[in-house]
């Protein structure tokens, strides 16, 4: 008799969300994420205050949401 193995899905099976920088942003402290216009950032968390948490080139930090545009799913590399 064989048993089927069940592999649970990851907690978040959704595709990651990416944003593209519309302007350069200089980090004001160590908790902020600096980027250049055109950079594509993985969005990790959105705060109602307008500050978003993101990941770029292995660096994680907060940035103002009005400096970026959300990309449709699947367009992170374009």
TrEMBL record:
Record keyword Transferase present: no
Domain SH3 residues, every copy: 14-73
Pfam families linked: SH3_1 (PF00018)
Keywords recorded for this protein, A-Z: SH3 domain
A single GO molecular function term of this UniProt record: guanyl-nucleotide exchange factor activity
Gene Ontology terms: cellular component: cytoplasm
InterPro entries, A to Z: SH3-like_dom_sf (IPR036028), SH3_domain (IPR001452)
SUPFAM superfamilies documented for this protein: SH3-domain (SSF50044)
Record-annotated membrane-spanning stretches: none
Keyword match NADP: no
Stored PANTHER family: RHO-TYPE GUANINE NUCLEOTIDE EXCHANGE FACTOR, ISOFORM F (PTHR46026)
Name of the protein in its database record: SH3-domain-containing protein
């Amino acid at each position: 008799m064989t048993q089927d193995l069940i592999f649970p899905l990851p907690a978040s099976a959704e595709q990651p969300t990416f944003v593209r920088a519309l302007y350069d942003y200089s980090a004001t402290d160590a908790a902020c994420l600096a980027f250049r216009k055109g950079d594509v950032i993985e969005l990790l968390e959105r705060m109602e205050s307008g500050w978003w948490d993101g990941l770029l080139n292995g660096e994680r930090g907060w940035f103002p949401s009005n400096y970026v545009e959300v990309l449709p799913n699947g367009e992170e590399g374009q």
